[in-house]
Amino acid sequence: MSTREGSLEAPTRHPLDWKNPDFYNEDKLNHELERIFDICHGCRRCVSLCTAFPTLFDLVDESSTMEVDGVAKSDYWKVVDECYLCDLCYMTKCPYVPPHAWNLDFPHTMLRAKAIKFKKGGTTFRDKLLSSTDAMGKLASIPVVVQVVNASLKSKPIRKMVDSVLHIHPERRLPEYDSAKFRATAKPRNDFAVKDGAKTPGKVAIYSTCYVNYNEPGIGHDLVKLLTHNEIPHVLVEKEACCGMPKLELGDLDAVAKLKETNIPHLAKLAREGYAILTPVPSCTLMYKQELPLMFPEDADVQAVREAMWDPFEYLMARNVDGLLKTDFKAPLGKVAYHVPCHQRVQNIGNKTRDALQLAGAEVTLVERCSGHDGTWGVKSEFFEKSMKIGKPVFRQMAEPAPDYVSSDCAIAARHILQGMGEAATAQKQHPITLLRIAYGLE
Asked: In the chain, what are the domain boundaries?
């Protein structure tokens, strides 16, 4: 009996078999890559998502056979390097993901390839450095050092020198660092009465993330203000390290496991105490909702954290359904061009940020397409131009309504979009959490 074309069932994900020695067998990887590439070549539905698929199809079309068997195995790595694990192909495009019999998981096969490359020592110092977000943040946010670092980020001669040594593109606008780290300066409130809703726990724990802690602490402070205004008791996670997503994207799965051992005990304790755990960066939320549970499917603590983890707007809008969210918005937001990050889209929670902004009175233009930045990928010199090319449709769609604000739950995507919109752009870049704080009239 022939295998039916495509699948109508919801995608399911198999656990990542990363502790199996065969996972790191390059010959077996190549066999699986050839199988998957052949299916992708016959479908080509994902050609518009990123540059990994056009790279693959060009390799096939330019080969002697015009089939995957004509592509050199060494060229497979060109496709792997173009994939930044956004997961959109799996969740939104591919008709052959499980439970389809072909069992195609393009992102996790790319992850396997990256893990093999890392094990073989094929990862550059630059890539290891960029993925060490905690170490970089702690160093760069030291008083006095932070002024030097931030000035260097704006210096063309220094940026050109950095490009020549580390291959970080001199034109990429990079986030500054802040010596007033969020965790050191936050003033959470835990003195309100706990009001559980039918859909929501009545108390919150904030996992601030490296980015909010070191780069834009204002996002975290604004989240505290939103929770305080709504009289939701909240605490900071007692101890936190990087979620592990940058190391996952590098293929350094042992480092991911080490970070998990640091974070999960504190998070699991809060989960079992009935806290909703909020993370203001979608990639971090996804790490705890999907990637760690797939890496450690038998770990009860990891699964407990998964159940307790919320996107902030997923939580706030569920709170609204419970009749427990204040809607006393005072300040008009005007036009907001809002970009939905890939790592939020694949959480399957719907457009909760858009819904919250509209509830606050904003005129929202929704753009649901990859911006092309992805963590550190768009920072690298060899991928900068491609990241800007991928983002062109987003830049145009975000600029069309002449918005007052450009916003994305992914702060680095918002910066990338504003850069792509060009010097003529007059919109302010603000995180959606900050926009909701402005709408409430909070200082």
From this structure: 21-119, 125-166, 182-319, 328-440
Query: Which residues neighbour 4 within 8 Å (Cβ) at sequence distance 6 or greater?
Result: none
CB 363, CB 334: distance < 8 Å: yes
pLDDT by residue (tens digit) across 97-109? 999 989 999 999 9
Q: How far apart are CA 393 and CA 371, in angstroms?
A: 8
Residues 6+ apart with CB under 8 A from 258: none
pLDDT digits (tens, 9 = 90+) for 215-229: 999 999 999 999 999
* Percentage above 90 pLDDT, the chain: 77
What CATH architecture does domain 328-440 belong to? 3-Layer(aba) Sandwich (3.40)
Pairing of strands 405-408, 335-339: parallel
Tokens encoding 76 = 């497979």
Judge contact between 380 and 415, C-beta under 8 A: no
What token pair was written down for 62?
């330019």
- Exposed (0-12), middle (13-18) or buried (19+): which is 424, by Cβ within 10 Å? exposed
